[in-house]
Design goal:
Elements: E1 6-11, H1 21-31, E2 42-47, H2 53-61, E3 66-70, H3 77-87, E4 92-97, E5 100-102, H4 106-111, E6 121-128, H5 132-141, E7 154-156, E8 163-167, H6 168-173, H7 186-195, E9 200-210, H8 216-240, H9 247-275, H10 283-306, H11 308-313, H12 317-321
Parallel strand pairs: 1-2, 1-4, 2-3, 6-9
Antiparallel strand pairs: 4-8, 5-9, 6-8, 7-9
Helix pairs in contact: 5-9, 5-10, 7-8, 8-9, 8-10
Length: 331
């Protein structure tokens, strides 16, 4: 493969809310890649104190190709990503999360398009680990779109920071934002990239599975904030691009988003049942979880519309640590 030099950046912020074994799973999956992980110029694990020292040392003993960079406590998700990009040596920066499992061909697939010098951004496709009725429910209501089944690269208006690669020059020109009054910044960043003339390409062969929310606390806040972001992020994009964000436009964007995710949810149910028809038996057990997630997203969306500062002010510290969310006015 004739691709540029590359580095892999993994953050541990999400592990404050996940099973700490997730980092071992991530590193094991990277060790099993069809393109040897040792071909990376560096593999950086960015940590701000979310993983106990002994567990981190134990996890890395088996993987000498990984190097830990420690940042001050309170450094958030997107900030860890950008700090890793700044410290990395490769021309292409590949971002992974410490609570994901990467398919064996993931690294090779996400890097292959960069042999074309016109390609600047490649995102893979991420899904939720669907084990059990709880996992099945989270697949359906997650923010990750259904599998595209595309036969090659396709263009998109979004990406996910657990499964994306950038040329360094892109991140130097338009860095991933942080300290905004929203939970995840990738929507803001994608809008800025598109406005800056970049094309976001998606690689369907670059597949990863993300862990489901770990515990009731994580589940509640995850879906509250997904609903909140659904109405706040479009307003922030309009504000930062100096475009109008009138009530009618906000309503139309929200309705379009609801239609999109309704179609996506149906597609994910179809895919799961096509992959394993017996899962129809677990659907009744998944329904209460789905209903709770939808209700939480609705409450979060109302909070984003009516009292965004109050909702963000109530977010617990451990949730804030897994983001770079900065409570403040939403214009």
């Amino acid at each position: 493969m004739n691709a540029p030099s590359f580095s892999v950046v993994i953050e541990t912020a999400n592990l404050s809310l996940a099973d700490l074994d997730g980092l071992r799973v991530t590193l094991e999956s990277l060790a099993d890649q069809s393109l040897a992980i040792q071909t990376a110029l560096d593999v950086l694990v960015m940590d701000s104190g979310d993983v106990p020292q002994d567990l981190l040392d134990e996890a890395l003993l088996r993987y000498p190709w990984a190097r830990v960079i420690r940042l001050p406590g309170g450094t958030g998700y997107e900030e860890l990503k950008m700090a890793g990009a700044a410290a990395a040596a490769g021309e292409v920066i590949v971002f992974a999360d410490g609570d994901c499992f990467y398919d064996p061909g993931w690294l090779e697939a996400i890097l292959a398009p960069f042999s074309d010098p016109t390609v600047s951004i490649v995102g893979g496709e991420t899904s939720i680990d669907s084990a059990g009725p709880y996992g099945f429910a989270n697949v359906i209501v997650s923010s990750f779109p259904a599998r595209s089944y595309a036969s090659g690269l396709y263009t998109s208006d979004r990406y996910h920071l657990n499964n994306v690669a950038f040329r360094r020059s892109v991140l130097e020109r338009i860095p991933i934002p942080s300290r905004r009054p929203c939970y995840r910044m990738s929507g803001l960043h994608a809008a800025a990239l598109l406005a800056g003339g970049y094309t976001i390409r998606r690689q369907p062969a670059a597949r990863t599975r993300h862990a489901s929310p770990n515990g009731l606390h994580h589940f509640i806040w995850r879906f509250l904030l997904l609903g909140y972001d659904g109405v706040v992020v479009p307003r922030l994009i309009a504000s930062e691009s100096h475009k109008s964000s009138r009530v009618g436009e906000q309503r139309r964007r929200t309705l379009n988003l609801l239609r999109f995710w309704t179609v996506q949810s149906a597609a994910k149910v179809r895919d799961e049942l096509r992959r394993q028809p017996s899962r129809i038996l677990s659907l009744p057990l998944a329904v209460p979880v789905i209903a709770a997630a939808v209700l939480l997203q609705g409450i979060g969306a109302l909070g984003g519309l009516l009292a965004p500062e109050r909702l963000l002010g109530a977010v617990p510290d451990d949730i804030l640590r897994s983001s770079t969310c900065q409570p403040g006015p939403v214009r």
